[in-house]
Design brief:
Elements: E1 11-17, E2 21-27, H1 31-43, E3 47-58, H2 64-72, E4 103-111, E5 118-121, E6 126-127, H3 135-146, E7 158-162, E8 167-177, E9 188-201, H4 203-206, H5 211-219, E10 226-228, E11 235-237, H6 248-255, E12 262-277, H7 283-322
Antiparallel strand pairs: 1-2, 2-12, 3-8, 4-6, 4-8, 5-7, 9-12, 10-11
Length: about 325
């Protein structure tokens, strides 16, 4: 239909925000935009992870490939990832991914010379770039500066255990990447969204139930959505977001002979997001980066459509000229 506009102006309302956890509402948009934002956060927000490992000496019980895989899964502080170059696009190192613009070098050199088992952890990784270190190392450094240091958390992420005479010596290159290429580059531990529920209780019908029937109806919900007011003994909505669209309370009402007791619908233009970060980047930075990447994608589509339109007009013009 001509003249119909599908333009929308999504809004974000932040409910809770921590370094590794964020909860927010995405309003005035549809499921396609919500899912696009979720997928970009998981698969296209870049981070830094170890991608190349050169083993110089390894007499541990784990083979080289196993150790390289474990190193790759250690989350690294990636606050500078958006400004770095992908190694495949870097012209400073001819694409081999070993320069200051597209990579960070790590070294590990540990030998066990005692009868006590030695844990080789992320603490033993030495970075050439102070801003790019294992996430747990950065967290302990910050905790020690603020006085919140806990000695129980100082072990780090275990890579391998060594016995007397065993050693591990290696060089590793960390590069920028995205989760679409490998899960080790994904900054997201969890990204979920749900439609915001609208719950309406038929108060007149509810008052026809006895107190025991009300309790029985409330307990039919597997999550704590409703409760009873201790003063008025009326059923109230305690936490609408705890509802999981399981329809158990609707089925219970029908079984009690009270259809229409409750009406639950989903707001099709409002979504509640829950985001958890691996620590590579802050949760709010992950959301902001995802929005920026999504904008770049939409700009690319708009530019492509514009170019195709120009080519179409040119072809039409040439066609008329040829006649």
């Amino acid at each position: 239909m001509e003249g119909v506009s599908y333009q929308r102006f999504p809004k974000v309302k932040i409910r809770e925000m921590k370094d590794d956890y964020m909860k927010f509402e995405l309003q005035e948009t549809d499921a396609s935009m919500a899912n696009a934002l979720r997928r970009v956060m998981i698969a296209e927000v870049p981070t830094i992870a170890i991608d190349l490992v050169e083993i110089e000496a390894n007499s541990s019980v784990l083979n080289d490939e196993f150790i390289a895989h474990r190193l790759g899964l250690i989350p690294l502080v990636s606050d500078d990832a958006m400004g770095m170059r992908f190694s495949r696009d870097c012209d400073a190192c001819d694409g081999d991914g070993q320069c200051e613009y597209c990579s960070v070098e790590f070294h590990l050199n540990v030998r066990c010379d005692s009868d006590q088992t030695l844990d080789v952890t992320s603490n033993d990784l030495r970075s050439t770039e102070p801003r790019v270190v294992p996430v747990d190392v950065a967290a302990r450094t910050l905790a020690s500066e603020t006085g919140d240091f806990d000695s129980q958390d100082q072990r780090g992420i275990i890579i391998v255990k060594l016995r007397r005479g065993q050693e591990l010596r290696l060089r590793a290159i960390a590069r920028k990447g995205i989760g679409k290429d490998h899960a080790k580059w994904s900054p997201a531990a969890t990204v979920t969204f749900m439609y915001e529920p609208e719950i309406h209780i038929n108060e007149e019908l509810m008052e026809t139930l006895t107190l025991d029937e009300k309790r029985s109806w409330i307990e039919s919900s597997p999550t704590k959505v409703f409760d009873i007011d201790p003063n008025t003994y009326q059923v109230r909505v305690l936490d609408p977001e705890a509802y999981t669209y399981d329809e158990e309370v609707i089925k219970k009402a029908e079984a009690m002979g009270k259809p229409g007791l409750i009406e639950i619908s989903a707001k099709e233009d409002s979504f509640i997001f829950t985001v958890e970060s691996t620590g590579a980047i802050k949760s709010y930075q992950m959301v902001a980066n995802a929005i920026e990447i999504l904008k770049q994608k939409l700009d690319a589509v708009r530019l492509q459509d514009s170019e195709e339109a120009d080519i179409g007009e040119l072809a039409q013009h040439l066609g008329r000229g040829g006649l």
